[in-house]
Structures are given as C-alpha cells and as structure tokens.
C-alpha cells in the first residue's frame, strides 16, 4: 500500500484523496490518502509532519497555510523551487524528505490548457503566500510582461517582488498598495489568497475593478465557482478555475510520489471536473 496525505486547514472538501486513490486504482496499486489537519490532531505542523514521516507515509501534499513551513523541513534540489521558497509536495526518501513544488508546473499546465498560446500580459497577483509565490514564478515562465504583487502583508509582497525581479527576464515587477490599484490596466487578475474557500468566504476584489481585463484565475477550488470567478465571468473575463490547478498539480505530484504512468484523461473522467 502507498500511504499519502494532505496537511492543511479547511480541507474537509478537498478532492485530493479522491484524485490520488483513483489514480492508484487506474495504475493498479492500492493507495490510502488521509486528510491531516493539525488542529484536529492536537498537533502543530511539525508534529503532523513527523507523524507522517514516522508512520510509513510515502509522501504528503501541503496546502494553506503550511507551504512555506514545509520548505524548511525538506531538502530541495531544484534551484527554481529553492527560489520560490514554498513546497506543496513532499516525498519521504531513505536519505530524508525531498521537497517539490507542483503548484508551479500545475499552474503553467492549467493556463496553457485554458488559453493555449495567448499572452499572459500584465497581471495583478493578489496574495504572496505559498501558492502566490509558485504562481508568480509560473507567470515569469509564461512570459508575463508586468506583475503587480499585492498582499495585506506588505513585507510578503515585497519579498516576492524581489525574488521575481531577480530572475532578470525583463518583466516589470512591482508591489501595489491595493488590489483595486493593481487591477487597473491589467490583462490577468489572479487570486492566490484563501478568500472564497469553504469555511472562509469572501473575495479579494470587487467586480467593478475587473472590467477591462481579459482573464482571471482563482487558486481556490473548493468551491470551484468562487465569488471571485463569478464576478470575473459577469465582467466578461475568461476564467480559469482553481480546479485546473488542483488537477495539474495532482498529476505532477503523482509522478513525484510514484513514478507510475497515469492515463490523465481517464483520471479526469473518473473524478469529474
């Protein structure tokens, strides 16, 4: 049996167990995937991490708000993931836990699936935490020309902006004081905050501020049709749901965990979405 798990808060509605256990059935292996919520287990993040490591888990997915903390507990061999500073996938190897970021690759996969070769353009990126960092670096990889970083924690936005600027791609990188200001003249608008998630609710940007943009993405996928994406659709934007990121990063995480081939079309059909 391959034991996997997800560490995070507000993950009762997560489809990660369904994705990986279904992937296991399609690949002909037995997979058990557990939700690991620190407060429900009476442990902190480190305690849950250690429990999984010592209990025979093959690997972990990590979600809000622990991706940056996970990066401190693993060895990261990929310089790009080191630069991102956040880990959402952990594999327990004989020589210690290894860290990966499939949010980065998953977002690139989701964007191209939805918009093919259309330019990313100028982007308002709201949220500079773990997933915001990964998406920011993915935007660089996709050729964004202008990224406006926004976070209620200005230090986080500043740190992300500096990390992106250090890639020296020629893109204009800056910190914006407000989401509304950053959205002005933007082609793409992205929510990488937990606002809109089941158990949290809300939206980081009013609908009126979305007009004039071309596309929007929400990293939240529970629910799929978040208030943010509903507003974007009413404003006439192409929308990319967080489900597409979830599916893309899940495929890449499966490769990290098992190395087994996977029929992704059959997986999508089996789990829906």
Description of the structure:
- The chain has 273 residues and is α/β, with parallel strands linked by helices.
- It is 41% helix and 19% strand.
- The chain is built from twelve helices and eleven strands.
- The mean pLDDT is 96.
In short:
With 273 residues, this protein is of the alpha/beta class. Helix content is 41%, strand content 19%.
Largest sheet, spatial ordering of strands: 8-7-6-9-10-11
Please state the structural category.
Answer: alpha/beta
Number of strands: 11
Which ranges are low-confidence, i.e. pLDDT below 50, for 5 or more consecutive residues?
A: none
Q: Name the beta content range.
A: 15-25%
Give the ordered list of helices and strands.
EHEHHEHHEEHEHEHEHEEHEHH
Q: Count of helices?
A: 12
Q: What coarse outline follows from CA principal-axis ratios?
A: globular
Whole-number mean pLDDT: 96
- Helical content stands at 40-55%
Please tell me how large the radius of gyration is: 18 Å
Main sheet makeup: 6 strands, parallel
Terminal CA distance: 27 Å
């Amino acid at each position: 049996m391959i034991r996997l798990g997800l560490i995070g808060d507000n993950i009762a509605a997560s489809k990660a167990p369904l994705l990986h256990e279904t992937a296991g059935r399609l690949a002909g292996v037995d997979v058990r995937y557990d939700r690991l919520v620190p407060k429900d287990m009476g442990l902190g993040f480190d305690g849950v991490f250690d429990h999984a490591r010592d209990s025979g888990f093959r690997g972990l997915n990590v979600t809000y708000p622990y991706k940056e903390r996970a990066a401190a507990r693993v060895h990261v061999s990929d310089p790009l993931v080191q630069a991102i500073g956040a880990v959402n996938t952990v594999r327990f190897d004989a020589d210690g836990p290894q860290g990966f970021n499939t949010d980065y690759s998953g977002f690139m996969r989701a964007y191209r699936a939805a918009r093919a070769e259309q330019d990313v353009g100028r982007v308002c990126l709201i949220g500079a935490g773990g997933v915001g960092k990964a998406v920011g670096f993915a935007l660089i990889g996709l050729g964004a020309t202008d990224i406006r970083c926004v976070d209620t924690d200005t230090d986080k936005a500043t740190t992300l902006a500096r990390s992106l600027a250090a890639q020296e791609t020629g893109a204009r990188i800056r910190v914006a004081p407000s989401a509304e200001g950053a959205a002005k003249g933007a082609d793409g608008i992205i929510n990488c905050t937990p606002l809109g998630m089941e158990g949290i609710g809300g939206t980081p940007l009013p609908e009126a501020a979305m007009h004039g943009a071309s596309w929007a993405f929400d990293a939240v996928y529970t629910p799929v049709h978040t208030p943010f994406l509903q507003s974007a659709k009413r404003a006439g934007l192409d929308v990319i749901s967080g489900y597409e990121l979830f599916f893309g990063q899940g495929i890449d995480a499966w490769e990290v965990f098992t190395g087994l081939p996977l029929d992704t079309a059959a997986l999508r059909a089996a789990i829906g979405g």
